[in-house]
Amino acid sequence: MQSVYEKIGGAATIQKIVEAFYPRVQAHPELKHLFPEDLTETMEKQFLFLSQFFGGPPIYTEKRGHPRLRARHLPFPIYPKTAEAWLACMASALQEVGMDEKVREEMWDRLVMTAYHMINQEHE
């Protein structure tokens, strides 16, 4: 069975998603303060993670160790509205990149689950 990574065209599409996503993050009032001004390293980490997360090569683990997403994000306050904002930016990025709707839905289900798993604060 083909992985999502393979279904979307691999690294090239992951890179397009990352490049479409981060300008939205930088412009979003709920998110921009959580990210550095220079997103070069952040975008590289996201590329590595999404590649591995969607069934591509384990390049995140090879370069950075186990993802441990929740633990790595604990220093940042992530509220339900933060997860919603992140998902809104990702939804727009996926739409911009364009792909088969069934594959996008498969990706979306995993992204939603992950975004809500990252919540570490209930109220501001």
From TrEMBL:
GO terms for molecular function: heme binding; metal ion binding; oxygen binding; oxygen carrier activity. SUPFAM superfamilies: Globin-like. It comes from the Bacteria. Its cofactor is heme. Coiled coil: none annotated. The keyword Metal-binding applies. PROSITE patterns: GLOBIN_FAM_2. Keywords: Heme, Iron, Metal-binding, Transport. Belongs to the truncated hemoglobin family. Group II subfamily. This is Globin.
